[in-house]
Amino acid sequence: MPSEFELIRRYFNRPCAHTDLSVGDDAALVRPASGMQLAISTDMLIAGTHFFPDTDPCDLGWKALAVNLSDLAAMGAQARWAVLGLALPDVDEPWLSRFADGLFHCADQYGVDLVGGDTTRGPLAIGVTIFGEVPNGSAIRRDGAHPGDEIWISGQPGLAALGLACLQQRITLPTAARTRCIHALQHPEPRLALGLALRGVASAMLDVSDGLIGDLNHILERSGCGAEIDATLLPLTPLLAAGADEPLARRCLLAGGDDYELLFSAPPSMQTTLAALSTQLQLPLTRIGHITEHRGQLLLREVDGRLLPPLVSGYDHFA
Amino acid sequence: MPSEFELIRRYFNRPCAHTDLSVGDDAALVRPASGMQLAISTDMLIAGTHFFPDTDPCDLGWKALAVNLSDLAAMGAQARWAVLGLALPDVDEPWLSRFADGLFHCADQYGVDLVGGDTTRGPLAIGVTIFGEVPNGSAIRRDGAHPGDEIWISGQPGLAALGLACLQQRITLPTAARTRCIHALQHPEPRLALGLALRGVASAMLDVSDGLIGDLNHILERSGCGAEIDATLLPLTPLLAAGADEPLARRCLLAGGDDYELLFSAPPSMQTTLAALSTQLQLPLTRIGHITEHRGQLLLREVDGRLLPPLVSGYDHFA
C-alpha cells in the first residue's frame, strides 16, 4: 500500500504557477504582493453532513475548492493559493485520482495553486483553506450596506436546493431539469469574475451558502440596517419552468442552501453599471429589493402589497 | 440550542492583535509585512487516529494549535495567524469552552490571532491552518543539508511516545515519570523561539512529528545526501531514568511520533553558537550525528562501532 507521503506525491503535488515553495516541506512559502491584503477563508465538508458518501469524487473535488473560492469572490478578492486537509477511511486510489482531477480542474480554471496539505486516516472529511489578494481597503465586506441601497443576487438561486430534493427523492422533476438542478448542486461556479468587478460598486456582499434570507440577515446584522424584498422581483420563473410549484420554488429560492451566488447591496446609481456587467459576464444580476433603516427588520412585500416577515430561514448545522 | 453562528461568537471570536478583519465575514483580512514570505501549513487531527476521543478538550485545543505552530517553527517563521475547522458530533458547551480555553492559551502564548473558522456537525475532527512570516529567502527548508553538517535535535524526543504507551496501558511507569511523559504527549511546546534563532545557523530543518529517523529521511531525500547517527550521542538517559528499558528508550527516541522537537543540520562551525543558544533558551540541543554524501543512506553507528541500518521507521497513517 502506498504511504501517506507517496499518496500526496502521486495525487496532490502538481506544478505551481506563483508559489515559492509548494508541497513537501513543513510549510509552503508564498509571497503576497505589496499593498495587498490577504483574504483567508476555511470550510470543512463532512460526508453525511455536506454530501452523500457516494458522491462522484470528481464532483466532490471540484466543489470542495469551489465553495471556498466563493468566499473569496464574496470579498472581491483574487484567488491565489489553497491548502487541503483530507481524512480518508482507507486508500482508494481510483477515488483519490478522480477527487484530485475535480479539485485541480477547479484550481486550474480559477488560477489557484494548491500549495500544501495533510492526508490522514479517518471518517471522510475535506478541509480547504483558501487565500486571495485584494488591494488594501478594497475588500467588499458585510458591514457596508446603507438604507436606500438596492439588493441584488447573481445567477439563479434555488436550483441547488431543487437538485438536493431530487437526490433525496423528495420531488420528481423532468429529466433535463433534474440534470440541471443536480449539476447546480454538485458543480457550483464560484463568481470570482463578478466579485472582482464589484469592487467599488457593491457596498456589502456575501455568498449565499445557507439560504438567501438567512445570509441576507448577516449583512443586515453587520451593517445595522433592515431590508425589504419585493416578491414580484424574485426570479422564480426558471424554478417553475424546472417543474417546482410556487411554494417550493419560493422556498428553494429564499432558503435553499448551496447556491454560492453573490448577494450584494449597491446604490441605485449603479443600475446601469450592473446591467452592463451582467451582459459582459453573461450572468443574470437580479434586483430583488432594497436596504431600509429599520435595524434587523427583514420584510417581504407580497404580490398583493402586504409587508410580511418571510416564513423561511437559513440552514444551521446545529439547529 | 445555540446556532452555529452563536457558537462561533461565544467561543471563538476574541479580540485580535494584528488583524484587519477577523471572524464574521466571508474571509478574514490580514496584511503581511512588506518583504516577507508567508509560510502556510495545515494539519488535521481526527478522534481515534490522532487522539483518544476522551482526551481533555483543553489539552486538545492546545495541541491542535501547537502541532501547527511547530511546522512554522521548523521553517524559522514568526507565527501570526490561524484558522480553525471543527467538526463536532453534537453541541457540548462545556467541551467547547474547555477546547477554546486550551486553543487560546496556546494562541496567546505564541502571539497568534485566530482569524476565522468553520464549525459543523460530523465525527470529531479538528483542522488548523497556520500562517507565519519569514523574511524573503530566510526560511529554513528541508533541502539545504550538506555533507559534513552536523545533525542536532532539540529537547527530549521519546517522552511523548512513552506517554502514549502509558495511555495505551502497554507499559507502566512510576507516577512522576508517567505524568511527565503524558504531559509531553498532550502539551507539546512548539519551538518557535529556537526556530527563529536558527535562521542563518541551521542548513536544513523540520519538526519531528512522525519519528526522528523517518523525519530525518525527509531531509536526506530533499537534500540528496545521507546521514550517520552516533548511538553514543543519543540522549537516552532521561528515558531510561523515566523507567524505560534500553530497547524501548531507543525505539521511542528514534521512532516515536508526536515529539514536535526540531531536527536540524548545521555546519560544525556553529557548535559554539548552538551551545550559547541552548543556554539562552534553557533548551537542550543535542548533536547526534552528521550528514554524509551517501545519497539516501541512513546508518546508525552502534556503541561497538558497527554501522547498521536503524531497525525502526516513522509513523505512516496508511501503513
What does this structure look like?
Two copies of one chain form a homodimer. Chain A has 319 residues and is α+β, with helices and mostly antiparallel strands. Chain A contains ten helices and twelve strands. The first copy, chain A, has helices at 4-12, 57-73, 93-110, 159-167, 175-186, 192-197, 212-223, 237-241, 246-255, 271-281; strands spanning 28-30, 36-46, 78-88, 113-121, 125-135, 150-154, 204-208, 226-230, 261-266, 285-292, 298-301, 307-308. Mean pLDDT of chain A is 90; it is low at 315-319. At the A-B interface, α1, β1, β2, β3 and β4 of A face α1, β1, β2, β3 and β4 of B. β1 (28-30) of chain A pairs antiparallel with β2 of chain B, so a sheet runs across the interface.
Describe what is shown at a glance.
The first copy, chain A, has ten helices and twelve strands. By secondary structure, the first copy, chain A, is α+β, with helices and mostly antiparallel strands.
Task: Considering the chains and any ligands shown, give keywords for the structure.
319 residues; alpha+beta; globular; homodimer; seven-stranded mixed β-sheet; Phosphoribosyl-aminoimidazole Synthetase, Chain A, domain 2; 60s Ribosomal Protein L30, Chain: A; 10 helices; 34% helix; disordered C terminus
